[in-house]
Amino acid sequence: MEPSRDNPMARFSAFWWGLGVILLFFVVLFITRLVTENEAPNPLEEAARLKRLEVRAKVDEDQKSNLTSWTLSEDKSTVKANPEAVFSLVGKQLVASKPTPSTDPAQVVPGSPTAEKLAAAPATDTAAVDDLTPPAGTAPDPAVMEKGKQAFLVCSACHGQNGEGNPVIAPPLAGSEWVAGPVSNLIRIQMRGLEGPITVAGKEYTLPAPMAPMGAASSDEDVAAVLTYVRNSFGNSAPPVTPEQVKMLRSEVGKPALKVADLIPVAP
Ligand code: HEC
């Protein structure tokens, strides 16, 4: 062992030094306390305290008016429901509640008022979106391409790593006239999904499963990036897609899956 630690005198003095430091700490604490004790209360803290009291009083009041439905047990540890009062309270709320119509395509009943309303929704102004497409020859931002490449991993599960498609899963994106065509088509497919049959690069695809709305839950930037990537990879070359364009078509989310007839036709 180290000689200094082995030395009883050194240990003894270390003990008293430690004790001294702790005592000093308490003395400083005590003095601080004395000095600050008589200060006027902080007006902000006081205002917050009064507000807390006010909220508390209101909560107590609300709870009291609700207590007809509930009874406190003798020792106040448990709350017992008063069935009749509870049933009438809950019943009134149920009767007053209205079902919320769902616009989730998976839940819309065909022929229901919601389905009719969705079908009759005003046509989206796709021309305004396509007018914002940068001119032909505009190079994509490399950072956006990198982001799009990451996002494309999901698409590649169906469309293939190089957008080559799969005869029984999804049509190709490489050399697809849809990919090079109007941007509004591509964004709407991301927002609503797509149901075939669809002809891509001269071949008709009638696939067992439609494409799901892949972009509904992604940010405008991510959707724009993945579409920009697809339009500038696998031999494709078309102007980038901007987040503003994606934003303009967010209203498409929730509408039923698109059919090819809903898209702006493209020349093969
Ligand atoms: C679950 C499989 C699946 C995934 C994942 C998927 N798609 Fe699709 N996609 C399809 C199918 C299937 C079609 C054709 C519609 C049909 O036949 O019902 C299609 C069609 C398309 C089309 C139009 C046709 C074409 O080939 O040009 C584009 C563009 C497209 N998808 C882009 C994408 C992008 C971008 C992603 C990733 C964000 C993606 N898809 C993810 C299955 C998928």
From TrEMBL:
SUPFAM superfamilies: Cytochrome c (SSF46626)
InterPro entries, per the entry: Cyt_c-like_dom, Cyt_c-like_dom_sf, Cytochrome_c-type_DH
Keywords annotated in UniProt: Heme, Iron, Membrane, Metal-binding, Transmembrane, Transmembrane helix
Record keyword Aminoacyl-tRNA synthetase present: no
Domain Cytochrome c: 143-234
PROSITE patterns xrefs: CYTC
Composition bias type Low complexity, residue spans: 118-136
Region ranges (Disordered): 98-143
Stored Gene3D superfamilies: Cytochrome c-like domain
Domain of life of the organism encoding this protein: Bacteria
TM stretches of this protein: 12-35
Coiled-coil ranges from the UniProt annotation: none
Name of this chain's protein: Cytochrome c domain-containing protein
Organism: Haloferula sargassicola
